[in-house]
TrEMBL record, chain A:
Compositional bias annotation for Polar residues: 499-512
Lineage, broadest ranks: Eukaryota, Viridiplantae, Streptophyta, Embryophyta, Tracheophyta
Ranges where the Protein kinase domain occurs: 25-324
GO biological process per UniProt: positive regulation of transcription elongation by RNA polymerase II; response to virus
One Gene Ontology term, aspect cellular component: nucleus
Annotated keywords: ATP-binding, Kinase, Nucleotide-binding, Phosphoprotein, Serine/threonine-protein kinase, Transferase
Stretches the record annotates as Disordered: 336-512
MF-aspect GO terms: ATP binding; cyclin-dependent protein serine/threonine kinase activity; RNA polymerase II CTD heptapeptide repeat kinase activity
Similarity field: Belongs to the protein kinase superfamily. CMGC Ser/Thr protein kinase family. CDC2/CDKX subfamily.
Positions with biased composition (Basic and acidic residues): 336-347
Entry protein name: Protein kinase domain-containing protein
Catalytic activity annotation: L-seryl-[protein] + ATP = O-phospho-L-seryl-[protein] + ADP + H(+); [DNA-directed RNA polymerase] + ATP = phospho-[DNA-directed RNA polymerase] + ADP + H(+); L-threonyl-[protein] + ATP = O-phospho-L-threonyl-[protein] + ADP + H(+)
CDD domains linked to this entry: STKc_CDK9_like
Automatic annotation (TrEMBL), chain B:
Gene designation: LOC110690310
Organism lineage: Eukaryota, Viridiplantae, Streptophyta, Embryophyta, Tracheophyta
Pfam family, one: Cyclin
PANTHER family on file: CYCLIN-U1-1 (PTHR15615:SF121), PTHR15615
Gene3D superfamilies xrefs: Cyclin-like
Recorded family membership: Belongs to the cyclin family. Cyclin U/P subfamily.
Coiled-coil residues: none
This protein's name: Cyclin
GO molecular function: protein kinase binding
Single GO BP term: cell division
Keyword tags: Cell cycle, Cell division, Cyclin
Region (Disordered): 1-21
InterPro entries associated with the record: Cyclin-like_sf, Cyclin_P/U, Cyclin_PHO80-like
Amino acid sequence: MAVAAPGQLNLHESPTWGSRSVDCFQKLEQIGEGTYGQVFMAKEIETGEIVALKKIRMDNEKEGFPITAIREIKILKKLHHENVIQLKEIVTSPGPEKDEQGRPDGNKYKGGIYMVFEYMDHDLTGLADRPGMRFSVPQIKCYMRQLLTGLHYCHVNQVLHRDIKGSNLLIDNEGMLKLADFGLARSFSSDHNGNLTNRVITLWYRPPELLLGSTKYGPAVDMWSVGCIFAELLHGKPVFPGKDEPEQINKIFELCGAPDEANWPGVTKLPWYTNFKPNRPMKRRLREYFRHFDRHALELLERMLTLDPAQRISAKDALDAEYFWADPLPCDPKSLPKYEASHEFQTKKKRQQQRQHEEAAKRQKLQHPPPHSRLPPIQQSGQSHGQMRPGPNQPMHGSHSSVPAGPGHHYGKPRGPSAGGPNRYSQSGNPSGGYSHPNRASQGGGGGGYGNAPYPQQGRVPPYGSSGPRGSGASGYGAGAPNFQQGGPYGGSGTGRGSNMNRNQQQYGWQQ
Amino acid sequence: MLATIPSEDHVGGQQPETSAAEATTPRVLLILAAILERLVTRNDPLIEHNGRNNLIHYVSPRPLAAGELGMSLKVFNGVRAPNISIAKYLERLFKYTNCSPSCFVVGYVYIDRLVHKHPELLVISLNVHRLLLTSVMIASKMLDDVQYNNAFYAKVGGVSNSELNRLELELLFLLNFEVTVSSPIFQSYCWYLEKEDLRIGSTLKRVQQPLAFDIKDDVNGI
């Protein structure tokens, strides 16, 4: 079967992944929870190196190994750049090897696969949301340049990220910024005119061509997202916080003007153009709206937030923009201030517990005032209230080391709902329950959400479009039903592709 | 990613002697079947020779630790060889899973990578069906925007859902997650398949037609 000439197989010798056990690492604390499963900060026992362990959720038997995970792994395997998160290896957790009959247990690897990443202290959204945080101009330039450098590298390697947003840009205490979360990424080639799904990119960062239904797109989609992030950094808040697709496109038109054949040749032929065509003329008022920005910043932003993807600036050209070469110059990443590492996952959990304590305390106060009014109640069975220990080390529900408030961690963020249909927000699809919606952000609580309620700017985590750009993959796969990727790239809906399974499904008698 | 994709279109019924099923089966499947059939025929005696219990570790250079992922093809082995031919099996996969023909080429690339990476692992009649099922399924996950889930593939392929999940993981680890197939590599495999087709086809005195557009010819006689 020798087919490929030497060197053509793309095979390079690398340590075989999966050969090491997760026991080589000592889990320190959970720092996130997402569609994939939990994310832990861990220490490699042999070297003492701190890493992030992302557990791949394997509990959807029908789906098997998550597509997002396979795609992320295969893409990260070929990307090696200082501004792209490094996937160090894959480890497995040893499980029961055989079932009672001594046969291999099919569920043996359930939940037992981990991706090992380099550890990062923050992400851009979490950092920006720190109370009192203000980025300096050289700092913004420094982050933007790293973002563009990493993205340029991806694009040169023919990878579209397709989910650029603040929470996917990880930052370490050396000031390095790295692109993360390639679960939606895919390869493209310039000579490939295949159709790609337009249900990608978190709504607030989604470019107009996707909102108008384009299925032939390229690196320009990522550049729109970069423009949104750039504007957000300068402006201090998200610039297009739409709550659904129509509102999203309307917000874009209000700022960038409405597209027509003059400013965007071909736009009228896009599938949903007529649906979203504004009924009144809308002028581009980007310059007017952001007139307080410096000249070079505004110039660059103009070229990023260009409606026509063909005219939108590329990552390479953006790096050459005057902005990065004019005073004040981008600072050296190492010169950036170091921020105390913290994990919003925990911060939030702690805050939630505190709230529960307060509420419970209130209730208790009403019922039978405790001896010390500031004491939280203890829900320990068999203990009377009189036994509550006063003092600073009063037990909480599950003691926690103190975690400073601050930025969040987004190694494994909650993702969009399983796209089953419009407006279905994470009723069942997102196991972490942490998917946040601006309208709900103020409710706080609700499980492991990230980057929303705790901070004054609520609702920082944008909603996913009504169609759900990302099915979490955790549900929505009916038995024997096709895994239909169109609605949300990985979300299942039961339609499409005639189900042949009902007829003629004799199984061959050769399974063990 | 794949710039060149074997055409899915097919014109059936021009040659009265071909059955409807054959007329709608892309020729690439038949070529693949012939190649794998040949490989299995070559490998099977090696196994027989070595005794059934050693099946796959025929020339295994290193001892296999129990429970390690990606170390052996043993999990792909059935107790006995399925009584469906490789060609019919591929046809069945194609018919029910409706995945694009390029998935079969990419699935073959995976199997080829596998035997390159692990020369000690032999593709034999006991494992070739499961290998095909798993590799085509993974290829479909990589390539197709629309595809059936593992549960469906398991039904079509005649294995249990949990077994297929296990096989999927095994294969991914055996491949070290190298499941990217670039356009040039895909193209080179297509050329190889065409060349094989010529070689195989010459005995049938067939009129040569490009692989992608000719799926009518019957190579079952090989």
